[in-house]
UniProtKB/TrEMBL annotation:
SMART domains: HDc. Pfam families: HD. It comes from Desulfosporosinus lacus DSM 15449. Gene3D superfamilies: Hypothetical protein af1432. PROSITE patterns: HD. Residues 21-124 form the HD domain. This is HD domain-containing protein.
Length: 196
């Protein structure tokens, strides 16, 4: 079987919620490429890291009280070694996976930097809002629509400052504006969230 298809199957068989599943991974991969068109990133490294970066939060692999980025790194290491992945590229993939979260410093490679940027940006704007609301009742931090609204506000305020590249910063501004327009509209239409 083709290596890329195997990675897709790993995500599909992991019990992931759609907000973190294959389509999220594809968006992160393609956005990473879009943001880095001025560079020559290793496509195999980028694709592999994008597909595996959230494995540690999927039900098949998750462990309670373990940061999902660290768990994803461990799961990715095991899976990729079983798949005979390049020993030269493996540390680059693992660095990108471990450092993909907004609360982490960017990883050492360009692939890690742009994967992190894309993952942060996928939590903002229209797509980020869609993801947040799809998690209501499915995620321990987002049990109600009000929780999703609070998280959207937090992301709109905090995430743009986590982006480090010029291309990422430009997109973060646009996606922040999308989020704020949505939140203002919801506030107006629900008597300041009372009718959510």
């Amino acid at each position: 079987m083709d290596f890329r298809k195997e990675l897709i199957q790993i995500v599909e068989k992991s019990g992931s919620l759609s907000a973190w599943g294959v389509k999220h991974c594809f968006r992160v991969y393609h956005l990473s490429k879009e943001l880095s068109t001025h560079l020559s990133l290793d496509d195999e490294v980028l694709y592999t890291a994008a597909m595996l970066h959230d494995t540690g939060k999927y039900p098949v692999y998750a462990l309670k009280n373990i940061d999902h980025a660290l768990r994803s790194k461990g799961v990715s290491a095991n899976l990729l070694q079983q798949m005979m992945f390049s020993s030269v590229k493996l540390p680059i993939v693992l660095d990108a996976v471990e450092n993909h979260m907004f609360y982490s410093e960017p990883g050492r490679s360009d692939e890690a930097v742009y994967l992190r940027e894309a993952d942060i940006l996928d939590n903002m704007g229209n797509i980020g809002l869609m993801r947040l609301f799809s998690l209501v009742g499915q995620d321990e931090l987002i049990q109600t629509p009000e929780d999703a609204i609070d998280r959207a506000r937090l992301f709109a305020d905090a995430l743009p400052d986590k982006v480090v590249t010029k291309a990422g910063k430009r997109l973060a501004i646009k996606r922040r504006e999308e989020s704020l327009r949505f939140l203002a509209g919801i506030k107006r239409q629900t008597l300041e969230y009372a009718w959510l």
